[in-house]
Amino acid sequence: MPNFSLELQNIGKRYGEVVALADINLQVKEGDFFFLLGPSGCGKTTLLKIISGLEAPTRGRVIINGKNETELHANKRNTATVFQEWALFPHMNVYDNIAFGMKMHKFPAQKIKTKVAELLELIHMGGYHKRMAYELSGGQQQRVAIARSLAIEPDILLLDEPLSNLDLSLRQNMRIELIRLHEQIGKTFIYVTHDQTEAMTMGDNLVVMQKGKIEQVGSPKEIYKNPVNDYVATFIGETNEIPGTISELSPEPILETPSGIKLKVDIRDNSLKKGSKAVAIVRPEHTKVIKSDDAIDNRFDVIVDNVAYFGPSLRLFCHSANDNTPFFVDVFTETEMAITAVAGSRIKVGLEKQYALCYGIN
Ligand SMILES: Nc1ncnc2c1ncn2[C@@H]1O[C@H](COP(=O)(O)OP(=O)(O)OP(=O)(O)O)[C@@H](O)[C@H]1O
Ligand SMILES: [Mg+2]
User: Fold this and answer.
1) Structural domain ending residue among the three candidates 231, 261, 286
2) Residue 37 in contact with ligand 1 by CB distance below 6 A
């Protein structure tokens, strides 16, 4: 049996009529870098507050390190939170900001001194003790806020969109810093974001949420390769979506588009029947520009609308030649297609059936 840092059992949370969370069940392994991912308003912050004890669930249990801590007050739980607005105490210097929690917890003075020095090294800010919080850059403030949370040696560090106030390049650096910190400390990190790139590139495991519910839990690779529904498939990673109706199930499932294109697909939804409305979800790396005589399960013509330059590759934004369904395809920059493709070109794209993941839609 793995050791779980955190188990959530049947957690529900209501604010009057608003159901913020509905029946959340989740297990987080000790030492995991775990992500809660979902759009604005889906309940991520609420869930984080319930884990930290800042909010009480309407029902369900919060188990931390095997102990039922549902009724335990926030300051008695061994968790620490880094909020989106990281709000250091502006009138205190870096040392006092980091030492604050330890003083509150009555750590011995010598231990506080050693710990602050250790944490400043960890965040690559050795020598910044005396700097006032307002004299720091956004990224430095962010690192101090993380150090402050780590100072009390929490078993679980909770991070609520900690990088959303930083510009893109700083955010990318901080992502690497956080991965390094996590590896060095070896504690459980639970990180809230609505940014799928962050969750995909940093997380050991993640949960995709929607409207207070969990849609799927797994590693980034599992979720990317085997999304349970079209919501998860389109939320994680990039996709083309081809809507249609299931016109055949056997011997081979076929999705027929409104304009009559018959696509061989891989059925990922057991509820699909002949006549069901459905959508085929296709990842960019599984679509290619083909020549007329290439052997492939599916082929169709598209018209190029727009060519976007990405450096190593170009993205051709197109629409189906039969109707207006949008479809994009990537080509490497140095290929013949990349050199000749212009807006208005008619090209053939191909797709193997195992990569046309087919789900029901309502
Ligand atoms: N104190 C509150 N009183 C009433 N409703 C609330 C309260 N806090 C949150 N909610 C509601 O609960 C739902 C979940 O909110 P929550 O803050 O957890 O979302 P979130 O996923 O963190 O969103 P974001 O990405 O925008 O931060 C929302 O519908 C929100 O309006
Ligand atoms: Mg939030």
Assistant:
1) 231
2) no
